[in-house]
Design brief:
The chain has helices at about 1-25, 30-35, 40-65, 80-95, 125-130, 135-150, 150-185, 190-235, 240-250, 280-285, and strands spanning about 70, 100-105, 110-115, 120-125. By secondary structure, it is mainly alpha-helical. α4 crosses α6 (about 135-150), α6 (about 135-150) crosses α9 (about 240-250) and α7 (about 150-185) packs antiparallel against α8. The protein is elongated and about 70 Å long. The chain has a 4-stranded mixed sheet with strand order 1-2-4-3, sandwiched between helices. It is built from 10 helices and 4 strands; from the N terminus they run αααβαβββαααααα. It folds into 2 domains: about 1-60 and about 155-200, no CATH class; about 70-155 and about 220-285, Zincin-like (2-Layer Sandwich).
Amino acid sequence: MFLLTNIAAVAMLTIAATIICGLFHVDLAAELGEGGYAPLLVFAFVFGMAGSLISLFLSKTMVKASMKCRTIDGTEGEAERWLVSTVEDLARRANLKTPEVAIYPGAANAFATGAFKNSALVAVSTDIMGQMTREELRGVLAHEMSHVANGDMVTMGITQGVVNTFVIFFSHVAAQIVQGALSGKDSRRNRGGYGLYHLIVMVMQLLLGFLSSMVLMWYSRRREFAADAGSARLLGTPGPMIAALRRLGNLQPGVLPDSLKAFGISGKHASLFASHPSLEDRIDALMNMPPSL
């Protein structure tokens, strides 16, 4: 959802800019080519970061609606009371305000999201509550609280914005080169050249966006190792997280929206496009942690 919201935000900003430029008879392609690449880089940065930040600030609201999250306060029952009190305890250990706690229907998974450390959301699925022991679930909750404490939602959002900037920038550079070679250097001044230019930009954004996702997923995998280690530090032992990962190896993790895959607990197999390392690699990393944590 983060990825889709980000793409939608960038697309809407681009469409709005194109419409405004059309109303005022401004050739955006030609204007971005004036004065070297500095104007283009500024344009790419503004649009790239705007899309990412919009996605980040809307993440909690959109996730609650899309995942049908039910926010709880511990008064609903014994299981909910344990869940809230455990998150409160972990928040105290991490020196954070207690995040919102929610339960959503679905297969075994959990996630954390939110634009700020002290106003985050931690949610678990109904299945993971039923299929994990409380000790295993404590490991998972500590993992999610480590994501919050590490500010991973913000860092992933900023990283996405930087990637957007380079994708937009190089898409326009490539479009200028290709369109110029095909139609002549002055073709952007006419309607046909203008349309060709933007068609090339869209194709290049799709291609470069696909390739850049490998960079984002590599960074996400690094953050997963850090969150696993954070779980061990919060609990004073890697045992609960190791047990939770082993349990997950025998379960089918629930599918999360793209915005949350980097903050969930999936990852049975590693790949260039995986947001998580393999469960085996994560368990090995935890088992090899120094005794002092």
